[in-house]
Amino acid sequence: MNFRPSNRGSVLIIVLWVTFGLVSMALYFANSMAMELRAADNRTAGLAADQAIAGAARYVGSVLTAYATNGMVPNLSEYQAEAVPIGDALFWIIGRDNSLTPAHPDRVSFGLVDEAAKLNLNTASTNALNGLPRMTTDLTAAIMDWRSTNGSGASQINYAMQTPSYQCKQAPFETLDELRLVYGTSLNILAGDDVNRNGILDRNEKSDTGISQASPGLFEYVTIYSREPNLHSDGTLRTNVNTQAPLRALLQSRFGTARAAQILNRLGFRQTPGRNPAPPPTFRSLLQFYVRSGMTADEFAQISHDATVSTASYTRGRVNINTASATVLACLPGLDAGTAQQVINYRQQNPNNLGSIAWIVDALGASSAAIQTLQTGDYITTQSYQFTADIAAVGQYGRGYRRVKFVFDISQGTLQIVYRQDLSRLGWALGNDVRQTWVAKATL
After folding, report:
1. What does the buried/exposed string (b/e) look like for 236-273 if buried means 16 or more CB atoms within 10 Å of the residue's CB?
2. Dihedral sign, CA of 372, 377, 379, 380?
């Protein structure tokens, strides 16, 4: 049968359309398969990153068990914190550089974060909280009301006026996230311009101070976890320096009878003629005890881990002067920005002299007004028992980014994870250098 030329042209067009449709369907399904393959690859990378974070948490636990003994802060040379491989995945522990002038303010620092380097929300005084960046007197009052247990908080009416309304807690903070509920807080106050909370100003973050460094919020400087045990490893209480007999025994065991007698006499532990002994001295802090004792810094370091001024099982809220930032140090009683800078300068120049709180006397001078004020309360320490591990991980080819923050506590003698929060929602927090090194190159 013969077709006319016009019919043959119509058939050709139909065939071309059918061919075009089949090719389009083939391309569509091929692209769909490619997308499914990439999605499956990303899911696999995400699972690998999740497992890397779990492995990193166990690794941090082993580091703290091995090196964080007697309140010591593990040295970064004792563990790995950057691009640590676990299978095909890598993890990082996001840290902080608390030096006065960071060498690379635009690069993320890596390492564990000492919770005792911060002010404790449950114990800090009004004056201490007022010294923090972005803090206002009204917000300080609201924080005090929130944690107060006397039921007379002046800001309670503010919570009743919220939609929906809620009550002022009037109990200690249990997490830092509770700050979101405190009247007068905002994301800008809590996080500052460091939205992803990695300690630097990333390219997608805008400085609200006009400088190239991050200006963090309250989250950077406060904690609820800092506490130290007043117990020895066998469960017995440390020696209370306000009790003469146990103190005498401790001093004699370290320095001998003659030197112990000299120290006790200088402290005011001596008998007067007659029936009634002289009233024993009362020390409000180990710093006050040290200043009055006449001991050398080396001598005090030999007993500092065995001494206390408290009868409680734990002491809460001391600030570790070995690790605290200048911002936190300036909030301590008697200190300001100038003396905080002196403290940091000294500890950077004398890294081998930081075994006890005695070094702050050398840094500021025994007769300085700062030391006179600081010794009136139990404010400082060189020991830490709680650490944050802010762990970020990627899977194969730099995909599957995950980030989880852990808080570890060893104050009870055994390691515990007391807080865990997924921070993946805050976005990339490893900085541009890591992106270029481990992600961009991996996709080439």
Report:
1. eebbbbbebeebbebbbeebeeeebbebbeebebeeee
2. positive
Q: Which residue has the tokens 């040295």?
A: 75
Q: What is the pLDDT of residues 165-183, one digit of tens each?
A: 898 999 999 999 999 999 9
Are the C-beta atoms of residues 385 and 116 closer than 8 Å to each other? Answer: yes
What residue type is assigned to position 70 of the chain?
Answer: N
d(CA 129, CA 133): 9
Read off the pLDDT band of 440 (50, 70, 90): low
Those residues with Cβ within 8 angstroms of residue 64's Cβ, 6 or more apart along the chain or in another chain:
74, 387, 408, 410, 415
Tens of pLDDT, residues 368-418? 999 999 999 999 999 999 999 999 999 988 889 999 999 999 999 899 999
The letter for the amino acid at 380 is I
Rounded CA separation 393/424 (Å): 10
Specify the residue for token string 């909370």: 197
pTM of the shown model: 0.89
Q: Which helix (H) or strand (E) holds 255?
A: helix 244-255
Q: Are the beta carbons of 122 and 147 closer than 8 angstroms?
A: yes
Residue environment code for 434-444, b if the CB has 16+ CB neighbours within 10 A, otherwise e: beeebbeeeee
Do residues 88 and 48 touch, judged by C-beta distance below 8 A?
yes
Torsion angles phi and psi, residue 307, rounded to 5: -115, 155
Number of C-alpha atoms within 13 angstroms, CB side, residue 387?
30
Q: What does the alpha-carbon distance between residue 49 and residue 282 come to, in Å, rounded to a whole number? A: 54
User: Does the pLDDT at position 40 exceed 90?
Assistant: no
Give SS3 for 109: coil
19 alpha-carbon distance from chain centroid: 64
Respond yes or no on whether the N-terminal peptide bond of residue 164 is cis (omega within 30° of 0). Answer: yes
User: What torsion, rounded to 10 degrees, do the Cα atoms 415, 417, 418, 422 define?
Assistant: 160
* SS3 category, 61: helix
pLDDT tens-digit readout, 214-265: 889 999 999 999 999 998 877 888 999 999 999 999 999 999 999 999 999 9
Residue 154's pLDDT is 67
pLDDT at residue 435 in the model? 87
